[in-house]
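[worker-b] picked up task from shared queue
[worker-b] task type: protein-ligand structure
[worker-b] ligand name resolved to zinc ion; SMILES cross-checked against name lookup, match
[worker-b] sequence length check passed
[worker-b] input payload:
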Amino acid sequence: MKKMLLLLCIIPLIIMGCSVEVEENKETIVKIEKIEEIKEIEEKSEKDVIPEEKTIEIKEVEEVKEIDLDEIRPNEMGKVMVIMYHSFGESEKQFVSTPEIFKEDLIELNDLGYVLVSLEDYVNNNMDIEAGKTPVILTFDDGHSTNFKVFEENGEIKIDPKSAVGIIESVYKENVDFGREATFFLNGNIVFGQAEYVDYKLNYLIDNGYDIGNHSNGHEDLSTLSADAIQNTLAINKEKIESHLNGYEVRTLALPFGKRPKDEKLEEFIYNGKWSDIGYNNIAVLNVGWNPANSPISKKFNYKSINRVQAGSMEFQLDHWIDYFEKNPNNRYISDGNINEITVPESLKEYIDYDKIGSKELIFYERK
Ligand SMILES: [Zn+2]
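[worker-b] inference finished, payload out:
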């Protein structure tokens, strides 16, 4: 009886089994399809995740990487050159350089271990540069047409390769690590000469990592103006520039003629002020000359009075200072390559303004 029962049971099972098998096959196919789908999703998400993981890895390696202090000789208390250019002409004279000389300057600076940083990163002690490199800042006053000229070719706007921006771009192409930063100090009424391209040029600069600073609306001598007139010229100029840009704030000032009011109360208006409903707050005020600026962590650093080195080969101009730092490398700012650390030779300890260190780690070493 038991056998019969078993047989009876087996027959329907075989019949059912076939359909079960088919069902299973269907299920398997569905399962395989699902697994493949999941794999695909996983692969996709893996692909998406990989670059992020890679950058994190590289970052960690960079952070851990120790530098050979005797070889790099970092000195983040060293001097920084803020170079002042104006226009380009056929030959070099006071406040005039040539496209060829400007290009030579950039190539020489690159060859000697300098890298371009923004004025803002310098002032904020936030210069993210490789170990052993020296930061340098480019500035251009007056918005001369030779700073940034464009032309149209087959309906496309092209940058004149002989204008300052064209030259910076071409040097950058060959030396990406050198960077492409510069601040153009503009006057509202004359912005690079070609009125129809003002909007294009200002946006090009901001979109490509350059900066724009205030140089007053009418290039007035600020030492001769009233409180109202100072605020008027600085606020109006800021507003004119910003009206072309989406969300960019002008907050650096190069003093026209390098002049500031003698009266302390009036002088305050070159840092902060307001005209109508336009306020301004400058984080860097630049003088005209004659020497390299202090490290942003130095007791001597003052954002209200940053000296510049004039471009050129005359006395105490750029060529002189490049030569000076070759002969006196100990006086030059040399990066430790770590934005979170400040490395200074022990001998310069007393000149540090500890308030400027912030959350960064301060490291001293014996410079041999
Ligand atoms: Zn000027």
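[worker-b] attaching auto-annotations
[worker-b] Confidence is low (pLDDT under 50) at residues 1-62.
[worker-b] releasing lock
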